[in-house]
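Entry 0007
Protein: FND10 protein
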Amino acid sequence: ALVANVLRNGSVLLQWAPPRPAAGLRGFALNCSWDGTYTRFPCDSVELGAACRDYLLPEAHGSVRYRLCLQPRVAPPRPAPPAHCVEFRVEPAAMRDIVVAMTAVGGTICVMLVFICLLVAYITENLMSPAAGAPRRA
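Output (structure tokens):
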């Protein structure tokens, strides 16, 4: 069975078990499609060795439906086993990054406002109050 593990950094780890029977297995071909329309991705027509059991798709785009198919390659005259396919969608990372950035900026602004308020209070208390020992006019 072919399994797609979507990682937090936006990459996808594909893992699979060898087909039964494994005799005559020469390798695998990995093909991708995007929303049903064939397009070129880093994993387009990748040839993998017979001992390979996983593949890392380093940069998957968010909010895109992927369909990846793994086709076992066998030595003739044996018929090729059917391709195993998996579909998945990667969470858009941009939104998560925007929320983290906005939270960081908001926290920084709050800290700056606290420092400004403390500075104004210090100036008002120590520099703007009348001198205690000044003589009074009569």
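Curator remark: Residues 2-91 form a domain with the Immunoglobulin-like fold (CATH 2.60.40.10). Helices lie at 93-126.
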